[in-house]
Amino acid sequence: MYSSRSAGSKPLFESRENPPAHYLIAHSDGGARGNPGPAGYGVVIKDESGRKVAALSEYLGHQTNNFAEYQGLIAALEYAIKHGPKALKLISDSELLVRQIKGIYKVKNAVLQDLHGRAKELIAQMEWFSIGHAFREQNQEADQLANDAMDKGMGRSSARVGAGDPPAHRALIAACSPRDRTVRGHRSSCR
Fold it and tell me: What is the pLDDT of residue 86?
Protein backbone atom coordinates (compact mmCIF):
# COMPACT_ATOMS: atom_id res chain seq x y z
CA MET A 1 0.00 0.00 0.00
CA TYR A 2 1.17 3.46 -0.76
CA SER A 3 0.04 6.80 0.52
CA SER A 4 -0.29 9.64 -1.94
CA ARG A 5 -1.16 13.08 -0.58
CA SER A 6 -1.70 16.49 -2.08
CA ALA A 7 -2.05 19.55 0.14
CA GLY A 8 -5.51 19.45 1.68
CA SER A 9 -6.65 16.28 -0.08
CA LYS A 10 -7.64 12.86 1.17
CA PRO A 11 -4.84 10.32 0.67
CA LEU A 12 -5.41 8.12 -2.36
CA PHE A 13 -4.06 5.13 -0.44
CA GLU A 14 -4.23 4.45 3.24
CA SER A 15 -0.89 3.18 4.48
CA ARG A 16 -2.12 -0.25 5.58
CA GLU A 17 0.22 -2.99 4.42
CA ASN A 18 -1.94 -5.96 5.40
CA PRO A 19 -5.15 -6.73 3.51
CA PRO A 20 -8.42 -7.24 5.37
CA ALA A 21 -9.76 -10.75 6.03
CA HIS A 22 -11.83 -10.71 2.82
CA TYR A 23 -10.56 -9.11 -0.37
CA LEU A 24 -10.32 -9.68 -4.11
CA ILE A 25 -7.18 -10.12 -6.19
CA ALA A 26 -7.41 -8.94 -9.80
CA HIS A 27 -4.81 -9.73 -12.45
CA SER A 28 -5.36 -7.17 -15.18
CA ASP A 29 -3.88 -6.70 -18.64
CA GLY A 30 -4.61 -4.48 -21.61
CA GLY A 31 -3.15 -4.38 -25.06
CA ALA A 32 -3.38 -2.87 -28.51
CA ARG A 33 -2.14 -4.37 -31.74
CA GLY A 34 -0.22 -1.64 -33.51
CA ASN A 35 -0.52 0.80 -30.59
CA PRO A 36 -2.78 2.47 -31.38
CA GLY A 37 -4.77 -0.31 -32.92
CA PRO A 38 -7.41 -2.88 -32.08
CA ALA A 39 -7.41 -2.95 -28.27
CA GLY A 40 -8.86 -4.96 -25.41
CA TYR A 41 -8.43 -5.83 -21.76
CA GLY A 42 -8.67 -8.96 -19.65
CA VAL A 43 -9.11 -9.24 -15.89
CA VAL A 44 -9.06 -12.39 -13.77
CA ILE A 45 -10.56 -11.88 -10.31
CA LYS A 46 -9.97 -14.29 -7.43
CA ASP A 47 -10.93 -14.20 -3.78
CA GLU A 48 -8.35 -14.14 -0.99
CA SER A 49 -8.14 -17.95 -1.03
CA GLY A 50 -7.27 -18.00 -4.75
CA ARG A 51 -10.67 -19.20 -6.01
CA LYS A 52 -11.57 -17.60 -9.34
CA VAL A 53 -14.75 -15.55 -9.03
CA ALA A 54 -14.81 -13.68 -12.36
CA ALA A 55 -13.12 -13.28 -15.73
CA LEU A 56 -13.74 -9.94 -17.44
CA SER A 57 -12.75 -8.85 -20.93
CA GLU A 58 -13.81 -6.33 -23.52
CA TYR A 59 -12.85 -5.25 -27.02
CA LEU A 60 -12.27 -1.48 -26.99
CA GLY A 61 -11.98 -0.63 -30.69
CA HIS A 62 -9.02 1.40 -31.97
CA GLN A 63 -7.13 2.56 -28.86
CA THR A 64 -3.68 2.59 -27.24
CA ASN A 65 -2.32 -0.10 -24.95
CA ASN A 66 -2.29 2.39 -22.03
CA PHE A 67 -5.98 3.15 -22.61
CA ALA A 68 -6.66 -0.59 -22.48
CA GLU A 69 -4.61 -1.01 -19.28
CA TYR A 70 -6.66 1.70 -17.56
CA GLN A 71 -9.93 0.15 -18.76
CA GLY A 72 -8.88 -3.14 -17.16
CA LEU A 73 -8.20 -1.38 -13.86
CA ILE A 74 -11.54 0.42 -14.00
CA ALA A 75 -13.39 -2.83 -14.79
CA ALA A 76 -11.79 -4.55 -11.78
CA LEU A 77 -12.66 -1.64 -9.48
CA GLU A 78 -16.26 -1.52 -10.74
CA TYR A 79 -16.59 -5.27 -10.20
CA ALA A 80 -15.34 -5.02 -6.60
CA ILE A 81 -17.68 -2.12 -5.84
CA LYS A 82 -20.71 -3.90 -7.34
CA HIS A 83 -20.09 -7.43 -6.05
CA GLY A 84 -17.90 -6.88 -2.99
CA PRO A 85 -15.94 -7.03 -0.95
CA LYS A 86 -14.81 -3.45 -1.50
CA ALA A 87 -11.23 -4.50 -0.95
CA LEU A 88 -9.01 -5.10 -3.97
CA LYS A 89 -5.40 -5.97 -4.70
CA LEU A 90 -4.72 -5.26 -8.38
CA ILE A 91 -1.78 -6.84 -10.18
CA SER A 92 -0.77 -5.40 -13.56
CA ASP A 93 2.14 -5.92 -15.91
CA SER A 94 1.94 -2.23 -16.87
CA GLU A 95 4.61 -0.45 -14.89
CA LEU A 96 3.31 2.89 -16.23
CA LEU A 97 -0.21 2.25 -14.90
CA VAL A 98 1.03 1.10 -11.50
CA ARG A 99 3.37 4.06 -11.09
CA GLN A 100 0.74 6.56 -12.23
CA ILE A 101 -1.85 5.20 -9.79
CA LYS A 102 0.73 5.26 -6.97
CA GLY A 103 1.54 8.89 -7.83
CA ILE A 104 5.18 8.14 -8.77
CA TYR A 105 4.65 9.19 -12.41
CA LYS A 106 2.59 12.14 -13.62
CA VAL A 107 -0.24 11.50 -16.06
CA LYS A 108 0.48 13.77 -19.03
CA ASN A 109 -1.84 12.39 -21.73
CA ALA A 110 -5.29 14.06 -21.67
CA VAL A 111 -7.21 10.83 -22.35
CA LEU A 112 -5.28 9.00 -19.63
CA GLN A 113 -5.88 11.92 -17.24
CA ASP A 114 -9.63 11.32 -17.61
CA LEU A 115 -9.23 7.58 -17.03
CA HIS A 116 -6.88 8.20 -14.10
CA GLY A 117 -9.49 10.53 -12.59
CA ARG A 118 -12.19 7.88 -12.99
CA ALA A 119 -9.92 5.26 -11.38
CA LYS A 120 -9.23 7.60 -8.43
CA GLU A 121 -12.98 8.15 -7.94
CA LEU A 122 -13.52 4.39 -7.81
CA ILE A 123 -10.53 3.82 -5.51
CA ALA A 124 -12.00 6.40 -3.12
CA GLN A 125 -15.11 4.18 -2.84
CA MET A 126 -13.02 1.18 -1.77
CA GLU A 127 -12.48 0.21 1.85
CA TRP A 128 -8.99 -1.09 0.95
CA PHE A 129 -6.93 -0.96 -2.24
CA SER A 130 -3.47 -2.06 -3.25
CA ILE A 131 -1.76 -2.09 -6.64
CA GLY A 132 1.40 -3.84 -7.70
CA HIS A 133 3.47 -4.71 -10.74
CA ALA A 134 4.06 -8.23 -12.03
CA PHE A 135 5.98 -9.43 -15.05
CA ARG A 136 3.99 -10.59 -18.09
CA GLU A 137 4.78 -14.24 -17.31
CA GLN A 138 2.88 -13.87 -14.02
CA ASN A 139 -0.12 -12.33 -15.78
CA GLN A 140 -0.73 -14.88 -18.54
CA GLU A 141 -4.42 -15.57 -17.93
CA ALA A 142 -5.32 -11.87 -18.05
CA ASP A 143 -3.13 -11.49 -21.16
CA GLN A 144 -5.01 -14.39 -22.77
CA LEU A 145 -8.38 -12.76 -22.01
CA ALA A 146 -7.19 -9.44 -23.48
CA ASN A 147 -5.99 -11.16 -26.65
CA ASP A 148 -9.22 -13.16 -26.92
CA ALA A 149 -11.20 -9.89 -26.65
CA MET A 150 -9.10 -8.33 -29.41
CA ASP A 151 -9.53 -11.43 -31.61
CA LYS A 152 -13.28 -11.48 -31.08
CA GLY A 153 -13.60 -7.75 -31.75
CA MET A 154 -11.58 -8.10 -34.94
CA GLY A 155 -13.73 -11.03 -36.11
CA ARG A 156 -10.94 -13.56 -35.68
CA SER A 157 -11.29 -16.94 -34.10
CA SER A 158 -8.85 -17.87 -31.38
CA ALA A 159 -6.62 -20.68 -32.59
CA ARG A 160 -5.29 -22.63 -29.65
CA VAL A 161 -2.70 -25.31 -30.08
CA GLY A 162 -3.44 -28.58 -28.35
CA ALA A 163 -1.77 -31.96 -28.05
CA GLY A 164 -4.28 -33.49 -30.47
CA ASP A 165 -3.84 -30.83 -33.17
CA PRO A 166 -2.35 -31.96 -36.48
CA PRO A 167 1.37 -31.17 -36.93
CA ALA A 168 0.66 -28.63 -39.71
CA HIS A 169 -1.59 -26.64 -37.35
CA ARG A 170 1.01 -26.75 -34.54
CA ALA A 171 3.66 -25.50 -37.02
CA LEU A 172 1.41 -22.65 -38.13
CA ILE A 173 0.80 -21.62 -34.52
CA ALA A 174 4.54 -21.84 -33.72
CA ALA A 175 5.26 -19.35 -36.53
CA CYS A 176 3.31 -16.65 -34.71
CA SER A 177 4.80 -13.50 -33.33
CA PRO A 178 4.16 -13.83 -29.58
CA ARG A 179 3.09 -10.19 -29.10
CA ASP A 180 1.06 -9.73 -32.27
CA ARG A 181 -0.52 -13.19 -32.05
CA THR A 182 -1.05 -13.19 -35.82
CA VAL A 183 0.58 -15.67 -38.18
CA ARG A 184 2.57 -13.76 -40.77
CA GLY A 185 0.86 -14.07 -44.14
CA HIS A 186 -2.18 -15.88 -42.74
CA ARG A 187 -5.45 -14.76 -41.20
CA SER A 188 -5.26 -17.24 -38.35
CA SER A 189 -4.45 -16.03 -34.88
CA CYS A 190 -2.52 -18.02 -32.33
CA ARG A 191 -2.38 -18.68 -28.63
Answer: 97
